[in-house]
Amino acid sequence: MPGLERLIYVDDSYNESHAGLIVFGWVECHPVRWCSALRAWLELRKELYREFTLPPSTELHATRFVNGRDRLITDPAAVSRNFFAPDGTLLKKDLGRAVALRCLDLLHRCPDLTTGAVYAQTDSRGRAFAREKYDLYRRLIGTWDDVCRAADHYALITMDGNDPHFLDAHRELPLDERRIIEDPTMHDSRRSQWIQMADLVAYTALMAVNRHAHNEFAWNWFGTYLAPRGSTVPTRL
Fold first, then answer.
1. Cα–Cα–Cα angle for 19, 133, 135, nearest 5°?
2. Residues 118, 121: Cα–Cα separation, whole Å
3. Partner residues linked to 25 by β-bridges
């Protein structure tokens, strides 16, 4: 009897105004390994609290914390002096990037987790850009549906936010044959550690393909921590 074998958590990242890039990143696990995978992540969050006073309940939104826009820590006095300038200013970007690398290392090492990403590039903007994003998602879940059918198992998808347009792609799958079950479950990233993992994957994938000088610090993160063997950038769909 075919069973549910893939729990997939998805988030998007994009640069519309300049590069026209759209990325979907994901983290997934087998349902049987869900508890141990989450435990590994929560243990890391505890470590980050002990080392940086970064509370486990604080949302890790990559675009904000990697670029030093979030106030991550509760007690600057407890943080290593390596993260302070000579005048005593907290180097929020350095701190955020150190946290990101710790998280990426966990995603790389955890045997219960698998990550991936795809991207597309377009000259479209505005509503046309949004249509391109939904079309990329449609192609992505179509690929997953084919893979699940060939392997004779099922998958369930969870996404960030509450955008109803993603439901359309699921409902277009042939009901008698589809292996992506249900509409995507929508979770608030502020309350979902899984979506925060997927957000970091999507951000890292975008940095791998959106290569300009301001992103150089993260150009190789995807290839180092997340890419399949022999690859350095996400798959282009």
1. 130
2. 11
3. 11, 117
**Residue 57 to residue 52: CA distance in whole angstroms:** 14
Kindly report the CATH number that applies to the domain delimited by 4-236: 3.30.420.10
- Using CA atoms, how far apart are residues 53 and 74, in angstroms rounded to an integer? 6
Q: How many CB atoms lie within 10 A of CB 150?
A: 9
Task: Tell me the C-alpha to C-alpha distance, in Å, between residue 144 and each of 151, 179, 234.
Answer: 11, 8, 16
In terms of Cα–Cα distance, which of 216, 151, 221 is closest to 180? Answer: 151
User: What are 103's two structure tokens?
Assistant: 């998280």
Tell me how far apart the alpha carbons of residues 8 and 184 are, in angstroms, rounded to a whole number.
10
pLDDT by residue (tens digit) across 180-208?
Answer: 999 999 999 999 999 999 999 999 999 99
CA gap 183, 167 in Å, rounded: 6
The H or E element containing residue 128 is helix 127-151
Distance between CA atoms of residues 179 and 2, nearest Å? 10
List all residues 6 or more positions away from 176 whose beta carbon is below 8 Å from its beta carbon: none
pTM over 0.90, yes/no: yes
- DSSP code for 48: H
d(CA 74, CA 97): 17
